[in-house]
Amino acid sequence: MMKQLPLLPFLALLPLLLLFSLLTGNSSACTNEGTDVILPCSPSTRENLQNKLFDWKKVGQGGDTQHEVFMYDSAVHYDRHSGQSEQFKGRVSHFQNELKHGNASIFIRKTKVIDSGSYTCVFPHLKPDEEFCIELVVGASPEPSVTILDQTKGWSLLQCLVRGSFPEPLLQWQDSSGNMVPAAEPQVSKTGDRYSVILNTTVTKTDRYQCVATQEEIKHQTKPAHIYVLLNGAASEPSVTILHQTEDGMLLQCLVRGAFPKPLLQWTDSSGNTLNTEEPQVSERGGSYDVILNITVTKTDRYQCVASQEEINHQSKPAHIYVPFNEKIEKLEKTEQRPNTPPADSATYPMISEQLPES
Ligand SMILES: *[C@@H]1O[C@H](CO)[C@@H](O)[C@H](O)[C@H]1NC(C)=O
Ligand SMILES: *[C@@H]1O[C@H](CO)[C@@H](O)[C@H](O)[C@H]1NC(C)=O
Ligand SMILES: *[C@@H]1O[C@H](CO)[C@@H](O)[C@H](O)[C@H]1NC(C)=O
């Protein structure tokens, strides 16, 4: 929890502050592995402890084995003779100058996940209610990793994996809006004191998904791991049509449906010049976009429209349309010998074809 909050260094002191504020009765504390922690203990008598005995023990998470953490006996302590559990060797000390103020707190360096458990501080010369009890949780909070296990056009199977966490983390899949995505039962396994958890989910929509691991007991949530899922969302070739003639020329339309992320449409002429158009008309349904872009053209040319989606680095195949104007039309009409004579004013209408003749 400390590592994940680098911008708030004062929070690194939180576990210690928590300890200081809970000096009587049962209390609890949490810290991150690798950090140092003070376990507080001072009997209400506040008597000088320099020539007394106090003993710190620990009962592990399972409640089974008891460990000797630290014993002070009139200046003799476990650092100087055997008896201390292997796990704590060389990492625990008392505060020599605090003893005369009745302070039997200890300091544990470089905490490990296995240090988690219930600690008691016992004074054999005092009444049992002077015993102190403190619950220590040393957390390990690796970030989850996410992968796509399998994918078809319509769905994608995602996996979120976290290894070596303590306490057991709860994994959750969320969509880009932070809504929870239903997932399968998590698969939890334990190696030593640490948990590994796998959470699969099948999604059917294009989106940016994320997986977060939460450890309630230590009020910790990891940074989310992100994954981008693209389902059917790459814009296909747009469809282009001639809508009708206007006073200014021919009105063409370029249309793409059901694309995600939102595509940008662009009209170009046969020399590759980008043409000015009006604003596109964009509509959204079911998380994907339909976009229409009209253009008015005035010259005989082969025009093309493409859809591009910058976010996914995708550009559709261009759709072409050939628009011939006046002179050509006259020639064509002469050779075609239409059975029905068109009305007089139709002479200005161009012949249109959606495909460019093979060149
Ligand atoms: C005991 O000593 C430690 C180390 O100096 C200190 O952090 C803690 O506040 C002291 N406890 C009390 C009750 O004075
Ligand atoms: C996740 O999906 C893979 C592939 O189908 C499967 O082998 C694995 O057992 C699944 N795991 C869980 C926890 O659902
Ligand atoms: C394109 O032109 C048609 C016909 O004039 C019109 O109905 C439509 O609203 C226009 N669309 C856009 C996006 O300008």
From TrEMBL:
Q: In the record, what terms sit under GO molecular function?
A: signaling receptor binding
What InterPro entries is this protein classified in?
A: BTN3A2-like_Ig-C, Ig-like_dom, Ig-like_dom_sf, Ig-like_fold, Ig_V-set, IgSF_BTN/MOG
Protein name per Swiss-Prot or TrEMBL: Butyrophilin subfamily 2 member A2
Gene Ontology CC: external side of plasma membrane
> Which residues belong to any copy of the Ig-like domain?
15-147, 158-228, 238-322
Signal peptide positions are 1-29
The subcellular location is: Membrane
Q: Which organism is it from?
A: Dissostichus eleginoides (Patagonian toothfish)
Biological process per Gene Ontology, one example term = T cell receptor signaling pathway
Keyword set for this entry?
Answer: Immunoglobulin domain, Membrane, Signal
The superkingdom of the source organism is: Eukaryota
**Where are the residues of the annotated region Disordered?**
329-359
